[in-house]
């Protein structure tokens, strides 16, 4: 019969506490609590409460950066009105920095890092039907207006994992138009296979993923991949949703929250082939003011629940998640 060490590669240790990074199935004796403990690792991941942004906002937008160094900008506040507010996240706190030049909300794109970001499109008017083509870049201290999108639109998405000099804009209320950014101007390329608005997005300019949204009213669960030239339909989300958040790359992405028609906390993981439901958000909501990071370390920032709840809540997604269990005689 194999010993514990032969199976797991370690002996059962005696530790005055718990090990800092236990592996799945590791067993040890905690001499401080006089308890035998073990670790289990969940590959599904989990959401945890993070530090709130300073100003509650929603927006159906994308942020930029990572789980520990992010940027959230624009959106609707509680008035409600569009804002130019920008907040920077250093992994422990949010700090207000220089405002955008154009206030915007209702589905605008973003890509890049905490210190090099581009934002484009959205609704920039005083009414719900004033889409903009305005594009701005962030250099770590201020926003600068640059060349506009070719098509003004709101309720759109983009490839948030792209560098700010190689962004991708797609979808929106005008249809399935797709545009690429080369650092100085936008170029129209092939349209999406299924034109839609209020959709989620992830990936890069040459390897993007679009999912969910609405097509002439009804919510859809369609997903598409972009290869730098054209869009191809792939396996659908399990749940049709609009105003959904997204994070990650084309072959390893998550879609979370949204409306189905009630607000949802569901999170789905895409592995490059299919979608799997994993851990739910703690607070079901839609239209995040920003969603940033990767499929294993994401941020869900702000959001909205009808009829008028706007959130400052931030949740952090981590996968895998290690849980320490205590062995008892009960």
Structure summary:
By secondary structure, this protein is mainly beta. Helix content is 2%, strand content 36%.
Q: What share of residues are in beta strands?
A: 35-45%
Main β sheet profile: 4 strands, mixed
What Rg, in angstroms, do the CA atoms define? Answer: 21 Å
Number of helices: 1
Distance between the termini: 27 Å
Q: How many discrete structural domains?
A: 2
The helix content is under 10%
Biggest sheet strand line-up: 1-2-3-30
Outline: globular
What do we call the CATH homologous superfamily of the largest domain? Kelch-type beta propeller
Give structural notes.
This protein starts with a helix and ends with a strand. 2% of the residues lie in helices and 36% in strands. The model has no long low-confidence stretch (mean pLDDT 92). The chain has one helix spanning 4-8, and strands spanning 13-15, 27-30, 35-42, 46-49, 64-65, 70-73, 86-89, 94-97, 109-112, 117-120, 135-138, 143-146, 157-158, 168-170, 178-181, 186-189, 200-203, 208-211, 223-226, 231-234, 245-249, 252-256, 267-270, 275-277, 290-293, 297-301, 304-305, 309-310, 314-318, 321-327. The chain is mainly β and 330 residues long. The strands form eight sheets. A four-stranded mixed β-sheet has the order 1-2-3-30, with no helix packed on it. The chain has a four-stranded antiparallel β-sheet with strand order 4-29-26-25, with no helix packed on it. A four-stranded antiparallel β-sheet has the order 5-6-7-8, with no helix packed on it. The chain has two domains: 4-42, no CATH class; 46-318, Kelch-type beta propeller (Neuraminidase).
């Amino acid at each position: 019969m194999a010993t514990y060490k032969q199976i797991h590669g370690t002996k059962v240790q005696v530790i005055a506490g718990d090990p800092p990074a236990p592996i799945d199935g590791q067993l040890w004796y905690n001499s401080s609590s006089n308890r035998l403990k073990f670790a289990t690792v969940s590959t599904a991941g989990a959401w945890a409460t993070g530090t709130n942004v300073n100003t509650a906002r929603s927006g159906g937008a994308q942020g930029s950066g990572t789980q520990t160094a992010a940027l959230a900008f624009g959106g609707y506040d509680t008035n409600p009105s569009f804002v130019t507010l920008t907040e920077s996240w250093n992994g422990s706190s949010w700090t207000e920095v220089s405002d955008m030049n154009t206030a915007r909300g209702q589905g605008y794109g973003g890509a890049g890092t905490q210190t090099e970001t581009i934002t484009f499109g959205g609704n920039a008017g005083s009414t719900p039907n004033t889409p903009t083509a305005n594009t701005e870049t962030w250099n770590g201290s201020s926003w600068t207006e640059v060349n506009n999108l070719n098509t003004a639109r709101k309720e759109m998405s983009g490839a948030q994992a792209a560098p700010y000099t190689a962004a991708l804009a797609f979808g929106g209320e005008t249809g399935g138009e797709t545009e690429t950014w080369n650092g100085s101007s936008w170029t129209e390329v092939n349209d999406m296979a299924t034109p839609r608005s209020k959709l989620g997005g992830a990936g890069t300019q040459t390897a993007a993923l679009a999912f969910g949204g609405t097509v002439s009213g009804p919510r859809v669960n369609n997903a598409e991949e972009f290869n730098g030239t054209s869009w191809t339909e792939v396996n659908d989300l399990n749940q049709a949703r609009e105003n959904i958040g997204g994070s990650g790359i084309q072959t390893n992405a998550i879609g979370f929250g949204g409306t189905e028609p009630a607000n949802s906390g569901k999170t789905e993981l895409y592995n490059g082939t299919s979608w799997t439901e994993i851990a739910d958000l703690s607070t079901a909501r839609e239209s995040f003011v920003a969603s940033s990071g990767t499929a294993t370390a994401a941020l869900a920032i702000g959001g909205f629940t009808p009829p008028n709840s706007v959130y400052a809540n931030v949740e952090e997604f981590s996968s895998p998640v290690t849980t320490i269990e205590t062995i008892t005689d009960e």
